[in-house]
Automatic annotation (TrEMBL):
Record-level Gene Ontology MF annotations: nucleotidyltransferase activity; thiosulfate-cyanide sulfurtransferase activity; ubiquitin-like modifier activating enzyme activity
Chain ranges of the THIF-type NAD/FAD binding fold domain: 114-354
Cited InterPro entries: ThiF/MoeB/HesA, ThiF_NAD_FAD-bd, Ubiquitin-activating_enz
GO cellular component, one term: cytoplasm
Protein name: THIF-type NAD/FAD binding fold domain-containing protein
Pfam family, one: ThiF
Superkingdom per UniProt: Bacteria
């Protein structure tokens, strides 16, 4: 191994005893270094020397070779070291290295000597997702997923582009008014990223059965950005995703706040667990939807982009395991008036859940349809 200190982290001397590595409030490490050992070692972690060579180059050593190995191991565990003796971009071709350069720089924050930055991008290139709904949320999600380089993206909608969509639906433009969103989206996205395998489905969803051949086991993730019929579509997505063991995230935008939540089958409670918990209110909520003006849409682009971005970011946390997800089994509320994020109580796993309980899945296996 030829350890290389990630030199995008500044090393700051706080006082004669202490150094700080990194300058971002959520990603900085204050380390006691009374003998100035780290100050001597870090410049030698240049990716050109192995540990033995580094050890031999340090004058007036006050530590053993084993101690040096442990210091480097600790820096690696914190995520401050990469290994220059291996090609950190070996999974990608020249074009991908340039197109996804900034993605790679971001993923490098999470890399270590065992996990290269390109392994994260490679995983995205091999990922297959489905986006349900190509309105404001869906079109923002699709642009973001394409920028990330998700290898295979299926998307579904049944509407045509209208003039009133264009305040927020970034996939379309005025010349496409009257054309199917799926067709226009396919053209726009294929032009934006020529290497992604896009698949369009022009279909109205009116029941769980309508999703049977769409939410399938080969998917890695589902984004639900459809809101019609309210609540029921989320139930159907939940049912099919749990059945096929596919994680999903679902979001929506209201007047002054947006929200989203995610489900990872067998890991988090499912949406039905939550609905069972609130079943006394469920009918009233549906009635309230029926009696309210469902067409009153106050979604503006900054608000809807904010929710879409938070959903995509949480997808990265869940799928790449780069940080703790914030929406698994609970609803995240984004306040548009303050930009504050709050959380509803985490859902409780219901052992009798009609959709996700073990008893239910065993019954399904014993008596297949
Ligand atoms: Zn459940």
């Amino acid at each position: 191994m030829k350890p290389k200190f990630k030199d995008f982290y500044p090393v700051i001397s706080i006082d004669s005893q202490t150094i700080q590595i990194g300058d971002e409030p959520n990603n900085a490490y204050e380390i006691t270094d009374p003998d100035g050992i780290l100050i001597k070692i870090i410049p030698l972690l240049n990716g050109k020397l192995d540990t033995k060579q580094i050890f031999n180059l340090i004058e007036e050593r006050t530590f053993s070779f084993l101690e040096l190995e442990n210091i480097i191991k600790t820096l690696d565990e914190i995520g401050l070291i990469e290994d220059s003796s291996i090609d950190n971009l070996k999974d990608l071709n020249d074009w991908q290295r340039v197109r996804y350069n900034n993605n790679l720089n971001y993923f490098n924050v999470f890399s270590n000597t065992n996990k290269t930055k390109s392994s994260y991008q490679k995983k995205l290139l091999e990922t297959k997702v489905l986006v349900l709904g190509m309105g404001g949320l869906g079109s923002n999600l699709l642009m973001q997923l394409s920028g990330l380089g998700i290898g295979h993206i299926k998307f579904l909608d049944c509407d045509e582009v209208e003039l009133k969509n264009l305040n927020r639906q970034v996939l379309y433009s005025e010349r496409y008014i009257g054309q199917p969103k799926t067709k226009v989206g396919f053209e726009r996205l294929s032009d934006f990223n020529t290497t992604i395998n896009y698949e369009m489905i022009d279909k109205r969803i009116s029941s769980a059965e309508d999703l049977e051949n769409i939410i399938t086991k080969d998917l890695d993730f589902v984004f639900c950005a459809a809101d019609n019929p309210p609540m029921l579509i989320n139930s159907w997505v939940n049912e099919l995703c749990v059945k096929n063991n596919v994680p999903f995230i679902s979001g929506g935008v209201g007047l002054t706040c947006g929200s989203f939540y995610s489900v990872k089958p067998t890991i988090s409670p499912c949406l039905e667990c939550y609905y069972t918990f609130i079943k006394d209110q469920f009918g009233q909520v549906l009635d309230a939807y029926d009696n309210s003006n469902n067409d009153y849409n106050a979604a503006i682009l900054p608000n809807i982009s904010l929710v879409a971005s938070m959903m995509t970011t949480d997808f990265l946390r869940i799928h790449l395991q780069i940080a703790e997800p914030i929406s698994l089994g609970k609803k995240v509320i984004v306040n548009f008036l303050t930009s504050e994020t709050t959380f509803e109580n985490p859902w409780v796993n219901n052992s009798q859940c009609e959709v996700c309980s073990i008893e239910k899945s065993m019954a399904t296996n014993l008596f297949p349809k």
